[in-house]
Design brief:
This protein has 3 helices and 12 strands. With 186 residues, it is mainly beta. It folds into 2 domains: 8-21 and 64-178, no CATH class; 24-60, no CATH class. The strands form 4 sheets. The protein has a 5-stranded antiparallel sheet with strand order 6-7-10-11-12, covered by helices on one side. Strands 3-4-5 form a 3-stranded antiparallel sheet, with no helix packed on it. The longest helix is centred in the middle third of the chain and has 14 residues, at 68-81.
């Protein structure tokens, strides 16, 4: 049986949970002055940078950085408590600034649309460092029905939160994630 500590395959590329939680930090964007130093006045922007110096994005100071690591630190205990396992961890987008995780719950009773097709519940989580997506958490039961990517299913819960400093929901990620795991059918 797979556990959260294993590596997982997505499209032939092995991706680990640890790789999806690469460290990032903010650096204030400043303009050079005539003496080739840095001006004291601020541009109203900041860079989101990896620890090895790769710039992932330039965001306004209104953007609130929520790291993949902090999101997973909050998520994993709840996911594990419900018997969840990581099915996919995908880093995508320009310079790897967008991340997607998909957790399955094999021990939760199966949901059937008909007698031949069964599906276990999942929780899907998105985050980005470039503003391309909000922090999004969705749980439900889904099944791929066509090679073009079309899926059918039922959304049980969904939460979206923008990366804004004034968004108080980002301070209660524990509660948002705690409401996301799928509930068994009665």
């Amino acid at each position: 049986m797979r556990t959260l500590e294993n590596t997982y395959q997505n499209g032939g590329k092995m991706v680990t949970l640890e790789e999806s939680c690469f460290p990032v930090h903010e650096i204030e964007a400043m303009l050079p002055d005539n003496n080739e130093g840095l001006r004291d006045n601020h541009t109203g922007h900041k860079f989101i940078v990896t620890d090895d110096g790769r710039v992932l994005s330039c965001m306004s100071n209104d953007y609130k950085l929520v790291t993949n690591q902090s999101l997973m630190d909050t998520t994993l205990p709840v996911i594990k408590a419900h018997g969840g396992i990581l099915n996919e961890a995908v880093i995508s987008g320009d310079k790897g600034a967008k991340t997607f995780w998909k957790f399955g719950f094999p021990d939760i009773p199966v949901v059937s649309w008909d007698t031949e097709n069964e599906s276990h519940p999942t929780v899907e989580i998105w985050n980005s460092y470039d503003g391309s997506t909000e922090i999004k958490i969705m749980s439900g039961t889904f099944r791929l029905v066509c090679s073009n990517g079309m899926t059918i299913g039922t959304v049980l819960s969904q939460s979206k939160n923008k990366h804004l400093n004034g968004n108080d929901n980002l301070n209660i990620l524990d509660d948002l994630i705690g409401n996301a795991p799928p509930k068994p059918n009665s």
